[in-house]
Specification:
Structural class of chain A: alpha/beta
Strand content of chain A: 15-25%
Radius of gyration of chain A: 19 Å
Distance between the termini of chain B: 22 Å
Largest sheet of chain B: none
Helix content of chain A: 25-40%
Distance between the termini of chain A: 44 Å
Number of strands of chain A: 10
Oligomer: heterodimer
Largest sheet of chain A: 6 strands, mixed
Radius of gyration of chain B: 18 Å
Structural class of chain B: mainly alpha
Number of helices of chain A: 10
Strand order of the largest sheet of chain A: 6-7-8-3-9-10
Helix content of chain B: over 70%
Number of helices of chain B: 11
């Protein structure tokens, strides 16, 4: 049974086609990895699946709900950890969790228990009352993962959840994800640039490049098909060795402006 | 409804936790109050207009409200750039309720700043006309704040970063402030200034505030309230359209 169903999904920005007639499905309870070089269309696809961006064409159903006309049901069906941080640094860990719980209509009676339970699962119980700005990158990620699960979603989207973290923390994050996905029975949809992570974690892999799906299968199948020793080799064979340009990012200039305007971040 | 409440609460918590911002945004109104108040006081009195501090304080209180409010709206850019906006945008709540929550939060914070300036102005000799009318003043401060948070939100939803912030302050907010009759009586100003003042939404807020605080105004305060409310409603509707089209 598939929990995400994508048919002929396309997104154009002017003349540029970011996602080009993509179709795939994600099986319930499985860990699904969506891989591709920079600019391949991964984040654009996730943005469409999570209602942040309207598709140019195509059909998407999430947890049996249609993207087009059942947006709120779709939104209740998933939790997401974005590529970039999305916590409020000026609130405590608990307040960030509570904010999410209220927005998602988690009933007040069960709210506190649920938040405490999840904070415990990611080992942040003792930091519950601390401002998020005092947290390390790994702690913030853990908090975001816990937050994404408060409303007991059916699907958890993880868009490069381990980028910029050291190997120890990355290992930890994945063991939390495995643990939580088992405990909560949640389907995981992830993207990552670390192929060994995808190889270890994923039940099924889709490789996308230039907006098109170029291969799909289990990690073992992909290795066999492409006669590679590792998923990384297979990935490089499929997508080539050229370096892709990274999207321009004005974050750094903005951070300095934010400082200039007297906000401490 | 609970989404509106939690967004309102967030603005308030963030405000209370940023002490430098509270003090920093009191600095400018206090500077205006002291320098203008005592600098022009004797000239104002000699020209037969009475006590300048009494005249000036409603304008300075409005200044604290307006500057805090416009910033509260433009802050949306930070929420977007630092990612928190996405968290609210994927939640199963309408964008309009997100905007309403933010706006009410920003407006509440602005009124608190205005009240802080009002309290400080008692120290330099300001006296209100009637204590009960102060509550009417709070209403004017709140609706003025809603207008400027809404304006800030509308602008922010079309802006990519903070580069344009000084332009907005110097070419929009400062002119609106100076043309509103905040620091000089519009009635005695040249015709052109009076006309500009009449199309400045803030002039209705300040006129109403002046009635509430010192008991005199150039228009009927109920007319002030009506016009100001219409301006605020209009800016909220425009802001709503822009905010709904905005990409996280």
């Amino acid at each position: 049974m598939s929990v995400i169903e994508v048919k002929n999904l396309t997104k154009k920005f002017g003349d540029f086609t970011a996602v080009d007639n993509v179709s795939f499905s994600v099986e319930k309870g499985k860990i699904f990895a969506f891989l591709g070089p920079n600019g391949a269309g991964k984040t654009t696809t996730i943005k469409m699946l999570t209602t942040l961006l309207a598709p140019t064409a195509g059909e998407v159903s999430v947890n049996g709900f249609h993207l087009e006309n059942q947006r709120d049901e779709v939104r209740k069906s998933f939790g997401i950890v974005f590529q970039d941080p999305s916590l409020d640094d000026d609130l405590t860990a608990y307040e960030n969790m509570e904010f999410h719980a209220v927005l998602y209509g988690v009933p007040k009676s069960g709210r506190q228990g649920r938040i405490e339970e999840l904070l415990k699962l990611v080992d942040l119980s003792d930091r519950s009352g601390d401002l998020v700005k005092t947290f390390s990158g790994g702690m913030k990620r853990r908090l975001e993962i816990a937050r994404a699960l408060i409303h007991t979603p059916k699907i958890l989207f993880l868009d490069e959840p381990t980028v910029g973290l050291d190997p120890q923390t990355r290992n930890h994050i994945w063991s939390y994800v495995l643990d939580l996905s088992k405990k909560e029975g949640v389907t995981v949809f992830l993207t990552t640039h670390y192929m060994e992570e995808a190889e270890k974690m994923a039940d099924r892999v889709v490789i996308i490049d230039h907006g098109k799906i170029i291969d799909t299968g289990t990690p073992a199948e992909l290795k066999e098909k492409n006669q590679s020793a590792s998923l990384e080799d297979a990935f490089l064979k499929l997508t080539g060795k050229d370096i892709r340009s990274e999207e321009a990012n004005s974050m750094d200039t903005l951070r300095s402006h934010a400082r200039a305007w007297g906000r401490r971040r | 409804m609970s989404a509106v409440y939690i967004l309102w609460l967030r603005q308030l918590k963030k405000y209370i936790r940023s002490k430098p911002r509270i003090i920093g945004s009191l600095g400018q109104p206090l500077l205006f109050l002291l320098v203008f108040g005592f600098g022009f006081g004797s000239i104002f009195a000699k020209s037969g207009n009475g006590n300048y501090i009494q005249f000036l304080v409603p304008g300075i209180v409005a200044m604290a409200v307006v500057f805090t409010a416009i910033f509260g709206g433009i802050e949306l850019i930070w929420d977007r750039q630092f990612g928190f906006l996405k968290e609210t945008m994927v939640a199963p709540v309408s964008r309009f309720s997100i905007m309403v929550g933010r706006t009410l939060g920003g407006a509440t914070v602005s009124v608190i700043q205005g009240v802080a300036v009002l309290i400080i102005s008692f120290l330099v000799g300001f006296r209100v006309h009637h204590i009960l009318l102060v509550f009417m003043g709070l209403l004017f401060m709140f609706i003025t704040a809603v207008f400027f948070v809404g304006l800030g939100t509308a602008i922010a939803s079309r802006m990519r970063d903070m580069q344009a912030f000084p332009i907005i302050m110097n070419f929009l907010v400062m002119p609106l402030f100076f043309l509103s009759g905040s620091i000089f009586p519009l009635d005695a100003a040249p015709k052109a200034l009076q006309v500009l003042g009449r199309i400045d939404p803030l002039s209705y807020g300040i006129d109403g505030l002046r009635y509430a605080f010192i008991g005199t105004s150039s228009l009927n305060p109920w007319l002030d309230l009506l016009v100001l409310s219409l301006f605020s409603a209009a800016v909220l509707l425009i802001g709503r359209r822009l905010f709904e089209k905005m990409e996280a």
